[in-house]
Amino acid sequence: SGKVAQIPEKERLLKDIVRNQKIKESLYLLLLQKREEAAINLVITEDTVKIVEYALSGSNPISPKNKIVYAGALMAGLLLPFGVLYLMFMLDTKVHDKKDIERIVTNVPIVGEIPLVKNKEQLIFENPNDHSILAESFRILSSNVKYVLPPKKNNGNVIFCTSTVKGEGKTYVSINLSLALSSLNKKVLLIGADLRNPQIHNYIKKEKNLPGLSSYLHGDESNWQSLMIKGFLNHDAHDVLLSGVIPPNPSHLLANDRFEKLISEAKELYDYIIVDTTPTILVT
Q1: CB distance 191 to 276 below 8 Å
Q2: What DSSP string runs through 11-78?
Q3: Rg of the chain over CA atoms, in angstroms?
Q4: How far apart are CA 145 and CA 150, in angstroms?
Q5: Mean pLDDT in runs of 10 for the chain (284 residues)?
Q6: Inter-residue contact 199 to 161 (CB < 8 Å)
Q7: Cα 97 from chain centroid?
Q8: pTM above 0.85, yes or no
C-alpha cells in the first residue's frame, strides 16, 4: 500500500527528468549546429591577412648594442674619476708640504716643517726632554735656523717671527722655537712685539695688561729687565718680555731708539732673542 501511494510522486519526478533531458538535448543539438555553421563559414571565407615572409629572429637585441654600451661605461668609469681628481688637484690652492712651496718659490730656504697639532693641551714645548713629534719638529727648526743666521760674533742673534695675516701661527712658532733653543742650554729672551693684538700671555696664563714692552718704550720704565717674567718653569734659561698695555701708537713706539737700545742690550745678555711681531700685510 505504501509503494502504491508513492507512484504519483515518482511519476512526477520522472516527468521532470524527462523534460530536462529533452531541453538539454535540444540545446546541445542547437550548439552543434552553430559550430558546424561557423566551421563552414570559416572555410568558405577568404583570408584578409596573408604572411608574405616570416620574420628573422635572433637571441641578441638589435638596439642598444651591448658592446657599445660596455665600452661607453668603461670609458666613463675611467674618465669620470680622473676628471674629478684633475679638478680637485687643479683647484687645490692649499700648501700641504714643503714640495708645494719649493715648486713655486725656489730662492727661499725652508728651515722646517711644523705638524698640525689638534690637541690644544700639547701646543707648547714645555718639557725640555719631550720626544713628541712637535718637540722634534721644533728641534729640527732650531738646528736649521743656526745655518741660516749669520755667524755669531760676541753677541746674540735676533730672530723675528712674522706671518702674512693674523692666525697663521707666528706666536705659536715664536714660543716653541724659543723653548727649543732654551732646551739646548741657550739663554733665550722672548719679546712680544705685537703691540696691537698680543697673544703670548694666553700661552703662559698671564694677565694681558701686565707691564711689558710698551711700558718700556713709552718711558714708564727705565729698566726693561725688571719687566721680564718666567713663563715656563722647566726652562731656567728662558725669559719672557710681554707686550704690555696696548698703546694707541704702536708703530711710533717701535720706531723709537728705546727699542734699538733694548735689542742691543739684550744681545749682550742672551744667545738668542726671539721677537714675536705683527702680520706684515695687515699692519705696519
Answers
A1: yes
A2: HHHHHHHHHHHHHHHHHHHHHHHHHHHHHHHHHHSPPS---SSPPP--SS-SSS-HHHHHHHHHHHHH
A3: 50
A4: 10
A5: 86 92 93 91 76 82 84 93 92 84 85 82 79 86 86 82 89 91 90 89 84 85 84 86 88 86 90 92 83
A6: no
A7: 15
A8: no
